[in-house]
Amino acid sequence: MTLPEALQALEEMGTAQNRKVYARHGTGPDTFGVSFANLGKLRKRIGRDHILARELWASGNFDARCLALLVADPGKATSRELDQWAKSVTCYTHADLLALHVAGKTPFAKETAEAWAKSKRDFTAQAGYATLAVLAKDDGGLPDAYFEQWLRTIEAGIHAAGNRTRHAMNNALIAIGIRNSALEKLALKAAARIGKVEVDHGETNCATPDAAAYILKAVARKASRR
After folding, report:
1. I want to staple 73 with a disulfide (CB 3.0 to 4.6 A). Which of 31, 34, 50, 148 is the partner?
2. Which residues contact 150 (CB under 8 A, 6 or more apart)?
3. Burial level of 26, CB count in 10 A (0-12/13-18/19+)?
4. Which residue from 96, 104, 120 is spatially nearest to 26, judged by alpha carbons?
5. Tell me: the pLDDT tens digits for 163-178?
């Protein structure tokens, strides 16, 4: 699929209602308003196409950038390229998608998470902690000591961090706590000391979960499946 074809498909799938909803989530005016269900359908049609992903990202359109992150090939992405994408992220949706679908699946995910989490730019740091959450979930080769260090970092800095970074740090805390029983105990203690994490979600129904409650529920769900 070419860039013009992809943009035309996105424009045709967009709705005025979705544009209104997405605006409350900070997507900006250049938005078609495509549902994630339809983005998923386009993703299946396209498959992995990193060249198209680069073109979609460069367009600056919200929906095009979402699709870019869904069709990007982590195996072809470079660290420098993803750094540039992270620096140009302008909404929390793209920060999360960048971490979940691209950065967290690269061979350099660990180094990326560590670098981005130190950023003073809110969306970049958010993407860093979101990438850390992917590592906690998917990278079985990392030792507990690595995540213990992150628990200390999260506890020490979460309340002073940027708005969306606080949300991502809380999610990373949850992901670490779900990883195994030893980290669960440490994460629950950290969550108790941290207390309530305040995040401004604007005019939306979104909320930042209570980390301890979420960890316990997720662990119980995992145990019931065994």
Report:
1. 50
2. 132, 172, 176
3. middle
4. 96
5. 999 999 999 999 999 9
